[in-house]
Amino acid sequence: MKPLTVVRSLTAGLVGIIAFGTVAGAVSLPAWWRDRDPAGDRASLAAAPVSRYVWPTYGYFTQEFRSSFNPSHSGIDIAGSVGTPIIAAADGVVTYAGFVRSGYNYGLGNMVEVRHADGTLARYAHNSRLLVREGQSVYQGQAIALMGNTGNSTGPHLHFELQQVGGGFLDPLQYLPPLSQPVRVGSQIPRQVQPVAEPPVTAQRDPRRSALPIGRRAGLYRWPTQSRQIVGGYVTAMERPHFGLDIAGTLYSPVQAAAAGEVTFAGDRGVLRNVLEIRHADDSTTVYANNHQLRVRVGQRVRQGDTIATLGNLDPYQPPHLHFEIRAANGQPLNPYILLPR
């Protein structure tokens, strides 16, 4: 696959217009985290506005979605001080937590991405510190990060996005609960929900908050190559989708089945060359592309770890690598990175 060259535009926008205090150097957990009262936290969560989402932080609204100032701005910005808590706007599973160094999301700094059961993704960018890890289930109101000024940013703020999986970006203001006054640039966003470090005990027994299907597949797959060096990440943005991982490796090294199953396709498929597809017991499918030579045929049963191909170099823009995808039974792409063992 070609390298992801599309990058984010500067998201800070109007942050520099409003002055905020910043905390220099390393950020320690604030007093609200150290001295919190769990019972009080749960009461605050129960009193949250009735909405699918809650406001992810508080401060001053500094840039809107797709504004005339920045038509490519794919979220909203809320500015505050370094260390201001960032909370999950809805229940979900963390699909990315780290510093974005390349790809379409480049420029978002320390970012958390959360996938929700309703088929949306939320991104929380420019954080100073992350409080969650990839693959972790989070609950509405849970503290997931601290506000920062990392990446392409002109001041401490949260850049918050909502996106349909495999589709376009959504205006977060259309999904967040309304405030007492219309939200405009310069509006103050009050604290809506007291952050919680852990979900209420009752929520763990709530069937509406059961594990997402993506969590149930964790542990089923193994890395298909000897190398774990990722040169192309999983990106769901409509502008430049990339529904798999590009894993660099040594030319002609073995490509192995990530899980046991039956080979259902062997050949070229669209822009992908020398492709193998394997269907597994849960009806998920793994896809292996950019191979040099295929070692199995359609209809053949393979075991986890069997050599099914040799790694190729069909893309002149990248080093030898395997393009690897995992798709659910309905064909929906899943992020391989959170399903592969660490």
What key phrases describe this protein's structure?
342 residues, mainly beta, Glucose Permease (Domain IIA), 2 domains, 9-stranded antiparallel sheet, 8-stranded antiparallel sheet, 4 helices, 23 strands, 31% strand, disordered N terminus
Textual characterization of the structure:
By secondary structure, this protein is mainly β. It has two domains: 13-210, Glucose Permease (Domain IIA) (Distorted Sandwich); 229-339, Distorted Sandwich (Glucose Permease (Domain IIA)). It is 6% helix and 31% strand. It has four helices and 23 strands. The chain has helices at residues 31-34, 38-46, 213-216, 336-339, and strands at residues 59-63, 76-79, 85-87, 92-99, 110-115, 120-127, 129-130, 137-138, 143-146, 157-164, 169-170, 188-189, 229-232, 245-248, 254-256, 261-269, 272-279, 285-289, 291-294, 301-302, 307-311, 321-327, 333-334. The strands form four sheets. Strands 1, 2, 4, 5, 6, 8, 10, 11 and 12 form a nine-stranded antiparallel sheet that branches. Strands 13, 14, 16, 17, 18, 20, 22 and 23 form an eight-stranded antiparallel sheet that branches. Strands 3-9-7 form a three-stranded antiparallel sheet, with no helix packed on it. A hairpin with a 4-residue loop joins strand 5 (110-115) and strand 6. The longest helix is centred in the N-terminal third of the chain and has 9 residues, at 38-46. The protein is elongated.
